[in-house]
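Morning!

This is the sequence you dropped in the shared folder:
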Amino acid sequence: MAAEHLLLLPGMMCDERLWGPQAEALPQAITHADTTSADNFDDMARAVLAEAPERFALAGLSMGGILAFEIWRQAPERVTHMALLDTNPHAEKPERQATRLEQIHTALAGGLRELATESLKPLYLAESNRDDEELLDTILDMALDLGPEVFRRQSLALRDRVDSVPTLLTIHCPTLVLCGSEDRLCPPAYHELMAERIPDARLAIVADCGHLSTLEQPGRVTHELETLLAS
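The structure's back. Tokens below.
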């Protein structure tokens, strides 16, 4: 049965612009989840579920995928389909936890633009997209519009997240697992693991694409979501 409603979960320091091409193209009713108010995934998921329709398909990119795991743990009966894009099922590594605190300090001290700019080209985008000024401006604008307090809250949530690998075997709805072939933050190996563990999963690795697949290869991502939602 095709999904009637699609709940979209953005990545860290992203908003509905991350899903713009898909929201415009897909026929489903769309809800863009607000992921800005909580500093942990438990509360973030509860807030999203409180505003969500009774039953929905779920798509999350990066931090949004991590949030999707928590939504599944809290309310699996409400999720009809799941799309996990450019995300990470593992808990945060200790060295990365320390880096998060340093970055929070930098952001609160006025360095959010510097943080966002330093990571844009080398970490977020495929090589062929690193000189796309419109794309770079969109990513930077999302981060600056959300601001340092949202950066702090989302960083803490990511720092303290639980390991979602044990959750993978419990996901029993049709699931798309997708990533860019050049995603350095959440590499293809993470997605191969997820597709292997989730019983009804389909893996899609997108060429010429980095971490922000919805914007880097919007047509391919939309097609893969259409295929999932029609199942």
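Headline: The two ends are 6 Å apart (CA to CA).

More detail when I'm at my desk.
O.
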